[in-house]
Hints:
The complex is a heterodimer of chains A (307) and B (134).
Chain A lengths: L29 H5 L14 H8 L1 H9 L2 H18 L6 H16 L11 E5 L6 E4 L3 E5 H4 L5 H16 L9 H11 L10 H24 L3 H18 L5 H12 L7 H4 L3 H8 L12 H10 L4
Parallel strand pairs in A: 1-3
Antiparallel strand pairs in A: 2-3
Chain B lengths: L2 E4 L3 E5 L8 E6 L3 E8 L2 E6 L2 E6 L3 E2 L2 E3 L4 H7 L5 E3 L6 H10 L5 H8 L5 H10 L6
Parallel strand pairs in B: 8-9
Antiparallel strand pairs in B: 1-4, 1-7, 2-3, 4-5, 5-6
Amino acid sequence: MERRTFLKYSGLTLAGVGLTGCKELDMSGFSQAMSGLGQSMPGTGGGDQFSSLMRAGGAVARAMEDLDPEQEYYLGRTVAANVLTRYPAWNNREANDYISQVGRYVSLASALPETFGGYYFQIADSDEINAFAAPGGLIIVTRGLLRCCKSEDAVAAVLAHEVGHVQHRHGIQAIRRSRITSAVAIVGTEAARHAGSPEVRQLAQLFDGAINDIITTMVDNGYSRAFERDSDRAALAILQRTGYDDRALIDMLQEMDGRLQPGAKDFAATHPSPSARMGEIEPNLLAERRAIPRSRQSRFQRAMRNV
Amino acid sequence: MQELSVQVRTTPLREQPTFLGRVLRELGYAERVGVVESSDDWRQVEYQGQRGWLHVSALTEKRIVLNPGADDVQRATTDRELALAGRGFNAEVEQEYRQRHAEINFAAVDQMERRSPTLAVIDRFARDGGLERV
């Protein structure tokens, strides 16, 4: 998840919306890992949203082929467990049920609506403005970030940005290619089936390393500006398709811009500046702002009243 | 007829190419389906004589072996169309991680995964909020 973004994605993304400044990542080596992902996907028809994503993610493709959705799921669980150790869960049932409904709904309108284990959402009891998206769809958002939201549309913008990190597999791309290559080699051996064997122990070490790679990028350093841009675009597409007001993404970034503290360790430290992101989003907005029905605003206020 | 495999733990076979429509049955990991026709990111498939729609994100061209034996492991090294379920980063590897990192809060993740609104709830949520049916 990225805290700097609105969202950091995997891992700890806070996805976001805007969130501020992600550090640039060294992606060398990963692009190779991704070439070829599209070959494993069944969608080949022109114009398909999902197929387009796969083609665009040539670099992502190959790595995804090596790390199938089941493995991505187990990586994501452990990443999320690490995030929830640093950022304890806030177990307000009404608020968590609400963001789970918003989040599941926007995930259905994404280019990756189905993952191995599915999408799940959790509020963290932290004043930090942050969000994290672990691989496979485990998304954690802080109370501090939710307090920046003035409407359900803003919550949807935050969660859609995080879903964007999941659909683009940004967390998985933080894993060093050499670890994936080594893991694939071990999986291809008979000894890897036997608990306690040296091969299984080596696999566990590679898993440790992969988790550290993702956490370091998502939580500590932030995703690249390009990744944040990809997730903002994904969020816009989702908002426009579902009927939410896409300007809620801009509203959130403005709100965050006013609240983020320079030098703080949250979103501001790990995401591009909200103003830079707004400049890239605005040309892609719909011509007119969509009105928010009273019923939608009422349920937002009811569910978020204790956040 | 092209054959595809379900690559997620479970996915609903739908009457129409939409998430919020009627569900005919659930399909599990590694089930094989035949493709009848395509519509954007949806595939109409046939499973045990029954036709319905699945989203492409739930499908792969690979054949997934649920309980791979030694022969499957050997074949998978050269056959890119074969995938071995439960290999690599799996539940056992997670268990090893948990033993070495007792301080990491997996219980919170388990609790998070128990919170899952049904598609019927999501459908009503969209309608009540004046949102599109996706």
